[in-house]
Amino acid sequence: MTVSEPVSATRWLDQEDQKPLVQIKGVTKKYGDVTAVDNVDLDIYPGELFCLLGGSGCGKSTLLRMLAGFEELNSGTITIDGVDMSNVPAYERPTNMMFQSYALFPHMTVEKNVAFGLEQDNVPKRDLADRVHEILKLVELEDFKKRKPKQLSGGQRQRVALARALVKRPKLLLLDEPLAALDKKLRKQTQFELANIQEKVGVTFVVVTHDQEEAMTLASRMAVMDSGRFQQIGTPTEIYEFPETRFVADFIGTANIVEGRVIEEGADHLSVETEIGDVFIDHGHSVSAGSRVWIALRPEKIRLEKTDSPANSPNEVAGVIDDIGYLGETSLYKVRLENDQIIDVTAPNQSRPMNRSHRITWDDKVKISWDASSNMLLTS
Amino acid sequence: MYAKRSRFLTVMLTLGMAFFYIPMILLVVYSFNHSKLVPVWGGWSLRWYGELFQSEEVWSAVALSLQIAFVNATFATLLGTLAALAMVRFGRFRGRTLFGGMLVAPLVMPEVITGLSLLVFFISLNQFIGWPAERGFTTITLAHITFSLAYVAVTVQARLTGMGQTLEEAAADLGAKPLKVLTAITIPQLTPALISGWLLAFTLSLDDLVIASFVTGPGANTLPILIFSRIRLGLRPDINALATIMILVIAICVAIAAILMFRQHRADLRDQQMAGTKES
Amino acid sequence: MTETSEHIDTAPVPARRGIMRRVQDSWRQIITIIPFFYLLVFFLAPFFIVAKISLAELAIASPPFTSLIEWTDSGVMTIRLVFDNFIYIWEDSLYLDTYLNSLKISITSTVICLVFGYPIAYGIVRSGPVAKPILLFCIILPFWTSFLLRVYSWMGILADQGTINNLLIALGVIDEPIRMLYTEFAVYIGIVYTYMPFMILPLYANMEKLDGSLNEAAADLGSRPANTFFKVTLPLTIPGVVAGCLLVFIPATGEYVIPDLLGGGNVQMIGRVLFNEFSRNSDWPVAAAVAIVLLVLLVVPMMVFQNFQGKASEDQ
Predict the structure, then answer these.
(1) What is the interface pTM, i.e. ipTM, of the complex?
(2) In chain B, which end has fewer C-beta atoms inside a 10 angstrom radius, N or C?
C-alpha cells in the first residue's frame, strides 16, 4: 500500500499473528473464452465484514459462488479455516449464503425455512426449536413464523433469508446483494441493522454489492473489482481517500481527474505540471521526475471563491461557473476552466439563500483552490 | 452453472427419445419394403408409393381433409382470438365463468362424448329446421371449429397476458382510437400466437378421427377415416407409404420454420450487438 | 372486424379505464358474443340433447330419429323413464366392468407416464442452452404428426409377425411369437406412447419456472441432492404433476382409437363400447346414458383441471 500514514488501521490488520479464515490463492474461473475471475488472491480474517464491490459482470458474484461451492474453479485454491474446499460440495461447506432473490422456499413457512438447514444436520428437536426461536427473535420476526414467504413484505423476506443463513452458525456468511431488492429508505436503515447483527453474532461476512455507498457503510474492509481482478483492497477510508488507480478514484465517489507530468520529486513533496496548472503535493511518492501521472480531486475538498483575480499559485485555478445543481444539503458547481475543462465542486449550503447578491451564480468568475494534501496522485 | 444433468436423467432422456422416435423410424423404413407383410423385409421398393398415388380414394380424402382443415383453422383462429380478447381484456362480464369453462372443456373432453353429442345435435337440428340436410364437409368443419377454437383461445390468451397492456395504453395515450390500437398494436403483437394458433387448429383438424367419424355422412371420408378403415383390419404397406409422405411434409414445414426462426434469432443478435456498440 | 369500425372511431375516450374497456360497450359485446354463441350452440346445447336422450326410451325397431321425436312429444313420460337406461347400465355387468377396466387402464397409464415423464421433463430442464430447445422440440414434434399413424406404428412393432417377435426369433430367444398386439399390454403401450408428451410438457413448464437458486439454497443449507429433490423440487412441481396427470387421465379414460386398433376386441374400454353402441346398435338412449355416466365420472377431474388453468393464467 502506498499510504504514507495509515488513516484508520482496523483491528484485524493490527493483529498480525491472526490467521486468515479464508484464503483465496490464484483463483481463476472461465466461461468459455470469458474470464470471469482472473488469478485472484485474497485473505479474509475472522470477524471481518468484507465487501466485494464492482459493476455488473466484474466477477464478484462468481467469486462468492465459488466460496459457496456452486462454481468449480479452473485453477487456484480456496481454503476455509485451513481446509481445502476443492472437493467439498456446497452441502458440506461451513458457509451459508443469503441469495439476492432470497431463494426462500415458497411452500414452507418462515419457521420451516429457517429450520431447514438445522434439519439437515439432524439437530435434536428441542435444540432446533430453541435455535429457530432465538434467531427469529434476533431478526424480529417471531410473530411471522407461521407465514409463507408470499405473505411477507420485501424487508421481512430479507430478514428471513438472513435468519435462515445465520441459524446454522456458519464460519462464513456469504451475502449476494443483500439489500438490492429493497427500496432506498429501507436499504439505508437495513445497512446499519445488518452491520449490528454481524457484530452481535460475530460471524465473518462476505458481502457482494454494486452499491459503493452500501459497501462504504457496511464494510470493515473491501475490495474493488473490475474485469475479474482486484483493483484495490483496503478499508473504506483508504479506498476513498487513497485510491491507487483512476478506476478506483472514479468508481468510488466522484473525482475530477487531470493528467500531468512530474516536474520535481522530493522526499516529502512533489510538483506536477498538469493541463489545468501546477499542482503541489505535500507528501512523497515513489515516482520519478518526468513520469506521466494523474491527479484526482474530490469535489468536496475544493474551495470555491467568487473573485476576478487570476490564479497565481499552485493548487489554484481560475474559472467560470458553467452550471449549478442544487441538491439540498449541498450544491454542485460545474466550473469551466480556461482550457474548457469542467471541474466539479460541491459546497455545503450552510445558509439559506436569502441574500441573492452573495450567491455564486451562473457565469460568475471564480477561483478554485485546494489543500496540498488533498491531491490524490495516481500512476495508472 | 450448478444445473447439471445427472447420469440417471441422461439415461431417461435417451430412453424417452428412443421410445418416441424408433416407432416412427420403423414406420418410414417399412414403407420401402417390397413385401406385402409389413414387418417382414422383402427388399427395397417404391411399390406402395405407386399404389398409393393411383388410389382415387386417397386423393379425394386428402382433398376433403385439407379443405376442412383450412376452413376450420381460419374460423377457429378468428373466433378463438375474439374469445381470448374477451377473456383477457374485458374484465368481468356476465357469464364469464360459463364462457371460460366452455373454452377449457373442449381441451379435455373425451372425443367420443364430443362426437356423439354433436351428432345427435345435428340430427335434431335437421328434424327441427331441416338443416344440415346431409352430413359431411359442413358438419365436420363446424365440429372441428368447436374444439379448435378452444386451443387457439388458450394460445392467444397466454400471449395476451404475457405482453401486458402497456403498449396499448401507450398507443391510446398518443391518441390512437380503440380500433386503431387493436389493428396497429394488439394484432401485430399477437401475430406469432395467431400463426401458431392457426397451425395448431389446422393440424388438429387433419388429425381428428373420432369426432369426424361421428358427424360425417355417407361418402364423406376424411383422410383419418380412410386410414382408420384400412388399418383396422391389420397392417397395410400403402399406409406406411402414406405415413412417410406425411412425416416428410411435416419435416419440410418444420425445417422451414426452423430456418425462419434461426434467421430471426441471428437478426436479433445483430441488433443487440449494434445496440451494444453504440452504448459503449 | 372492420365493418364495425365506425362505431368505435367516434367513441369518446373516458380516462382512467383500461384501454380495451374504453371500446364502446356494443363493440365489446359483439366480440364476446360471437365465440360465446358459437360455443353455446355447438358445445353446450349438444350435451343437453344427449342428456335428454339418455332419459328417453328406445323406440323398438324404429330409426333413431323416431325415438327422439317420440320423446319430445311426451315430456311427462321422461320422469318415468329416467332410471331405465341408467339402471340397465348399472345392472349389466358388461358396462360396469368396462367402466372399471377403463379406469384401471387410464389410471395405470397415467402413473406410468408420470414415472417416466417426470425424469424426462427434469432432464430437459437440466440440459444446457443448446440441447434444451432441441429436446423440447423433440417432445412437441409428435403433436404435429398424425396420432392415428403413431398408434399404427406400434401395430407393426407388436404384431405376431412384427419387429419385436421377428427380432427375438432371429436372435433365438424365442421359438414361437409372443402375442402382444391385441392385448391389454399393447393398449398400455399405445396410451403411454400417445399421451406421454401431455405429461411432459406441463411438468416442464412448471419446472422451468422454478427459481434455480432454491436448489442452491437447499444445498447451501446442507441438503444432499436427493433430499433437495424430495423436500424442495417435488413439492414445488405438484401443480405440474396434477396438470400432467389430468391431461393424460381424462382423455385416456374415454379413448377409442387405441383400444380398437391395439386391443382388437380383447380389451374393453368405455369409449370403444360407446362408439360401437352408437354406430351399430342404434340404441341411442342407452348409448347416451353411457356417455352421461362417463361425463359424470370425468367431471370432477375436468373441473380440477379447469381450476388449474384459471389459476395458471391468473398467475401470469
Answers:
(1) 0.88
(2) C
